[in-house]
């Protein structure tokens, strides 16, 4: 509800009418079968526009929905490794990680340690670092290798442009 005496009016075609009494502005809106909407309440006098408010809200919601549809949601894909992993297994996991990174996702590398492997954490760290070096052309290390219990984790961030879906 507009409670001020005079408003600056913009008609339904976007032309500025000027400063008019609020009742006159309401009458203009009523005659056209539209609503009088306060666009800028901080301005003196406040700016009001004659428009179909329902259609305005609908268009606003539609634009927001379309912009959300075009967004790419970045996911964190996980790849599990072991300290005694074979060369062929590393190549296979590299190929998977490469496809994740090309898709614009982040890749979390988890090095799992069991039993006596905990005595040789540096071996696992070396495997992770070589893995990151092989993917350096389309990723960068976001979080360096860090021990969390029996697991060494590292996060790679994609530098490739996200793929269009």
Using brief descriptors, characterize the structure shown.
single chain, 165 residues, alpha/beta, Ubiquitin-like (UB roll), Translation Initiation Factor IF3, 2 domains, 4-stranded mixed beta sheet, 35% helix, rod-shaped
Describe, in plain words, how this protein is organized in 3D.
The structure is a single chain. This protein has 165 residues and is α/β, with parallel strands linked by helices. It folds into two domains: 6-68, Ubiquitin-like (UB roll) (Roll); 76-158, Translation initiation factor 3 (IF-3), C-terminal domain (Translation Initiation Factor IF3). The chain has helices spanning 22-32, 53-69, 87-102, 121-134, and strands at residues 6-10, 16-21, 35-40, 47-51, 76-81, 106-112, 139-148, 151-158. Strands 2-1-4-3 form a four-stranded mixed beta sheet. Strand 5, helix 3 and strand 6 (106-112) form a beta-alpha-beta unit. The chain is rod-shaped, with a radius of gyration of 30 Å.
């Amino acid at each position: 509800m507009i409670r001020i005496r005079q408003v600056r009016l913009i008609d339904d075609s976007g032309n500025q009418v000027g400063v008019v009494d609020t009742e006159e502005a309401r009458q203009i809106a009523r005659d056209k079968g539209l609503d009088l909407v306060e666009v800028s309440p901080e301005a003196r006098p406040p700016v009001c526009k004659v428009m179909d408010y329902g259609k305005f809200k609908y268009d606003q919601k539609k634009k927001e929905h379309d912009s959300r549809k075009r967004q790419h949601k970045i996911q964190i894909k996980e790849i599990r490794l072991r300290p005694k992993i074979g060369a062929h297994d590393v190549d296979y996991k590299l190929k998977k990680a490469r496809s994740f990174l090309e898709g614009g996702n982040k890749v979390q590398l988890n090095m799992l340690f069991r039993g006596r492997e905990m005595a040789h954490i540096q071996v696992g760290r070396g495997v992770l670092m070589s893995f990151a070096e092989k993917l350096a052309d389309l990723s960068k290390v976001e979080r360096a290798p860090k021990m969390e219990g029996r697991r060494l984790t590292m996060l790679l961030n994609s530098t490739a442009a996200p793929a269009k879906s």
